[in-house]
Backbone:
């Protein structure tokens, strides 16, 4: 399967993502900050980013990485609190491949990652 880098400082939700993606056959690299993301990108196929806290900063981080060519071959998936439509718009403008509400991420994490992987290969 794929190596998935997950930037999710929320310990409980991050653990849920790690468990669900691992159960789906992926290798998960849990990260706490931008430095960890940058170190993990070379080997990752998908980057999952929690946009519920510091959303503007994380969206800007992904936008800058994309502009610098650091996301070549890496698909990006962001999730946000469903009530925060501005965060979704900002993430989409920043160039995320897919942006979904946190509740959908919880229900469909493996399917969303698979969708991104299949979009990349086809």
Residues:
């Amino acid at each position: 399967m794929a190596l998935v880098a997950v930037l999710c400082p929320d310990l409980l939700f991050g653990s849920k993502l790690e468990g669900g993606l691992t159960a789906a056959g992926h290798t998960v690299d849990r990260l706490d900050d931008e430095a960890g993301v940058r170190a993990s990108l070379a080997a990752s196929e998908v980057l999952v980013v929690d946009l519920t806290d510091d959303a503007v900063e994380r969206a800007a981080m992904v936008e800058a990485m994309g502009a610098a060519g650091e996301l070549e071959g890496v698909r990006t998936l962001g999730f946000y609190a469903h009530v925060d439509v501005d965060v979704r718009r900002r993430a989409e403008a920043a160039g995320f491949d897919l942006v979904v509400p946190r509740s959908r991420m919880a229900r469909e994490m493996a399917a969303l990652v698979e969708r991104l992987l299949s979009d990349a290969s086809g």
